[in-house]
Amino acid sequence: METVAHALKFYGNTIVRLSYSYLHNLSDAEDVLQDTLLSFMRNKPAFSCPEHEKAWLMHVAINLCKNKLKSSWFKTIAIPENLQIESITHEESEVLEAVHTLPVKYREVVHLYYYEGYSTFEISSLLQKKNLRYVTFCIGQEICSKKT
Fold it and tell me: How far lies 102's CA from each of 7, 11, 87, 125, in Å?
């Protein structure tokens, strides 16, 4: 139980932000955090370092977001376009809005790189894409810059 509290304290906000970037809904993002921590509690994985722990949690959260996006329930619910998180400044919200309009394959890479600070190599490993092309990142960045 102590390790779950540790994971929530150190990675909770990161997981919610990542989930929100996929789902565009704070309640669903918080649900993904809860499900991620439940998975953490059930599996009790052993980690060699804190980076491995964070990567595992992020990977689980990404998979849960993708599963939620595939569900028929999620596809039928209208998501308000103007939903904003209170702690985000106006400039950040414009950038976040531009990132949210990207296709998922670009959005996840841009989010992990800019908001979470992962390198392209780490993103490749986290998303389990062997040769994540730098082009994917560049295209996402280019699309995002055109929208702002």
Answer: 29, 25, 22, 21
